[in-house]
Amino acid sequence: MSKLYERYNYLKRTDTDGEHTLYLFKSGIFFIFLQEDAKIASGLLHLKITQLNSEVVKCGFPINSFQKYKSQLDNCGYQFKIIDTTENASFSITDYSVDENISDLLNKIRNVNPENLSIREAYEFIDKIKQEAIQLTSLKKDKNNS
Q1: In which band, very low, low, confident or very high, does the pLDDT at 142 lie, cut at 50, 70 and 90?
Q2: 134: burial class by Cβ within 10 Å (0-12, 13-18, 19+)?
Q3: For 52, phi and psi rounded to 5 degrees?
């Protein structure tokens, strides 16, 4: 946790939006807020604060709960950046969500066995994938226009 704490402090000191941005760290199978960000996020998302030691607090939620919290994060009035500790990258909530949805869409395509589909099921599958792709494209366009 000390590397996350060091990274959190570094971002708060150096990011020009640091004092107005809450950092959500993707670490393993959890998203984690630290320190003051944890206190704010706990109130917004009703997450339990955990004392790591006498100086550091955290709160968070499992990665698979991201969609549950996404709309609350989008509408709470704070800016958020997701810091992916495995890729050493940061994302906005919308960018992360779109990327996750693209990955889900690609997994659906990758996992379909066309030999098990009737012609009708194949057309329905293609139509469903097309509709999801259109939604993702419009999310990306909306994000780029704002």
Answers
A1: low
A2: exposed
A3: -75, -40
| Calpha distance 21→11 (Å, rounded) | 10
CA distances to 46, 71, 120, 131, 133 from 136, rounded to whole Å, are 29, 16, 24, 9, 5
* Among 14, 13, 21, CA closest to 92: 21
Give dist(CA 146, CA 140) in Å, integer: 10
Q: Which two tokens stand for residue 21?
A: 């941005």
Give dist(CA 36, CA 4) in Å, integer. Answer: 14
Rg over alpha carbons for the chain, rounded to the nearest Å, is 18
Q: Which of 12, 116, 24, 14 is nearest to 63 (CA)?
A: 24
Instruction: Give the DSSP letter of residue 19.
Output: G
For the segment 12-38, what is each residue's pLDDT rounded down to a tens digit? 888 776 567 889 998 888 899 999 999
Q: What integer pLDDT is reported at residue 10 of this predicted model?
A: 87
| 19 conformational bin, left if phi > 0, alpha if psi -120 to 50, beta if neither | alpha
Contact predicate 97/89, CB 8 Å: no
